[in-house]
Amino acid sequence: MSAVLSPAGRRLVAMAALSAMALCPIAAHAGLDITAYERVSLVASPRLNAEGEPLDRKEVRLDVVHFPERAEGLTPGKVYRFQTSFEFRAGSYSGYSAWRNELAKLGGYPPTMASFLRGNPPEPRYDATAWQRKSGPFWELIAFSDAEGLIGPVTCQRVHADFIRFQPAADKHPDAEFRESYADWAKAFRLCANGGAIVFH
């Protein structure tokens, strides 16, 4: 039997479906990129270009797109100066969805039957179970956008602790690509946890 998704779960399914539809031949290069910033500080009077973006290469404007509660510790829409940054490719939208599902499985969530695209049969998804909950390992990352978003230092501290806790299990995962992505995400959350931010783009 398929589970009845909560409003938040349905929103995540809809966002995942939009990402999947973006994977047409014309947009085959589309995917999720991540930039993590460490030790950000608010800039009182930034110098901006015509588009409102900071001119200083060590500054960034941090905007909330979805899930504003994940940006706790930051003032959305403001320009921040950062000490260091780290950028990586999280994969295609479908690739990231698969990795996120594996992360939920690693975190101990049981599977839930869920359908992502209209007309497709339900399939067992571990991340769909996380979407039904309000907390759990990696929950703030799993129950989050797969396209655009902002995560602040308070959330990052909690998720970073999960990456440390599950590192031994991740090291034993049979998929080398999963382990590589896990290392990238762990580094991103380590930087963000140190008074920083993570931007999905």
Provide the fold topology.
Blueprint: H1 7-21, E1 32-38, E2 41-42, E3 59-62, E4 78-81, E5 84-91, H2 93-106, E6 112-114, E7 123-125, H3 126-131, H4 139-142, E8 149-151, H5 153-165, H6 167-171, H7 176-193, E9 197-200
Antiparallel strand pairs: 1-5, 1-9, 2-4, 3-4, 6-7, 8-9
Helix pairs in contact: 5-7
Task: Considering the chains and any ligands shown, give keywords for the structure.
201 residues; alpha+beta; four-stranded antiparallel β-sheet
Largest β sheet strand count, sense and barrel closure: 4 strands, antiparallel
Radius of gyration: 17 Å
Strand content: 15-25%
Oligomeric state, counting identical vs distinct chains: single chain
What is the percent of helical residues? 25-40%
Unreliable parts: 17-28
Query: How are strands sequenced across the largest beta sheet?
Result: 5-1-9-8
Total DSSP helices = 7
Number of domains: 1
Give the helix/strand class: alpha+beta
Task: State the order of secondary-structure elements, H for helix, E for strand.
Answer: HEEEEEHEEHHEHHHE
**Tell me, what's the shape?**
globular
Q: What's the rounded overall pLDDT mean?
A: 89
Give the beta-strand count.
9
C-alpha termini separation:
35 Å
